[in-house]
């Protein structure tokens, strides 16, 4: 597969900037454009809402990179003009300001264009009382089917999955917090990533 002559990254925040930097690090030398909704360069959002607004930091300190980033990346930044549509056949992104940006390849987060998706958090709570490290992800209920998927009850070290109507609804970890955290991904509809310890014998 030939390398694209131009790449358009929709989203000029921390993730978009990291994508552009990764492309350059991997040796991509073609045209690179970052399109962002906000008019300012990428900044660190948590400190903006805490340290900067509290007066502990100056606004410049929240900048993720220095002002010479465009020159260092050899990238074009189109800021203050959000993307509103993507034409897949022509690989063209239209902006609210009327621009039509075309590239051989486009990097677009699935919630930036098209149907809006809302974040659905997974409830989580834990305790280390009663000589046990208990971690619960999701909402276990009495009517759910429960299956122990790691460890065993006798050793008091196990991970149990709760299913209702075939769908995972909760994960219970008893003295196995790391493994329980891995199974949490099933609640998000994602495949479980094995823990590093699983490759050891």
In CATH terms, what is the architecture of the largest domain?
Answer: 3-Layer(bba) Sandwich
What is the CATH fold-level name of the largest domain? FAD/NAD(P)-binding domain
CATH class of the largest domain: Alpha Beta
How many separate helices?
4
Shape: elongated
Low-confidence stretches: 44-49, 190-201
Task: Say which CATH homologous superfamily of the largest domain is assigned.
Answer: FAD/NAD(P)-binding domain
Give the helices and strands, then pairings.
Elements: E1 6-10, H1 14-25, E2 31-35, H2 45-52, H3 69-73, E3 75-78, E4 83-87, E5 92-95, E6 100-102, E7 105-108, E8 124-127, E9 134-138, E10 145-152, E11 157-164, E12 167-174, H4 177-183
Parallel strand pairs: 1-2, 1-7, 2-3
Antiparallel strand pairs: 4-5, 5-6, 8-9, 9-12, 10-11, 11-12
Structure description:
The structure is a single chain. With 201 residues, the chain is an alpha/beta fold. The protein has 2 domains: 6-108, 3-Layer(bba) Sandwich (FAD/NAD(P)-binding domain), CATH 3.50.50; 124-193, FAD/NAD-linked reductase, C-terminal dimerisation domain (Enolase-like, domain 1, 2-Layer Sandwich). The protein is built from 4 helices and 12 strands, in the order E-H-E-H-H-E-E-E-E-E-E-E-E-E-E-H. The strands form 3 sheets. The chain has a 5-stranded antiparallel beta sheet with strand order 8-9-12-11-10, with helices on one face. Strand 4 and strand 5 form a beta hairpin.
